[in-house]
Amino acid sequence: MTPTQTAEKTRAIVVEEVIPHTPEKVWHALTNSDLIARWLMSNDFRPERGHKFTFQATPVGDWNGTVDCEVLEMDEPRLLKYSWFGGSATTPSRYILESTVSWILTPVDGGTRVKMIHDGFVSPRNDIGYDQMSQGWGTVLQRISKVIDEAA
Question: What is the mean pLDDT of residues 93-120?
Fold first, then answer.
């Protein structure tokens, strides 16, 4: 590394909690487009490997409100992984966040251990997104559990 180069560090948001529901119910909440819209964002998700889909929300700051994704891995009801590309409002063709989201489900006494890993935040470029999304992902497991309760 030359003196003018800077080392980029990649960080991940990891959220883990036991939800009092079976892995099959949690899986359904993670893979049903209507339920995903209730705990995250509107979307056109389909649980098919290779399916390209979009999350849509209200634009905020430099974020254009769109997240382009693709289902990368599926092992029902244990693992779901998709790409997560967030766009820039000022330069729509340029992604400001290129990352992945993984959901790992493990049956345990009393329900399912859900581990969500949002990986690929490059520091310092994605520090603001990392800080903001850490707060959001921190509450998402409670929202998923509530949606499962309401759907029952």
Answer: 93
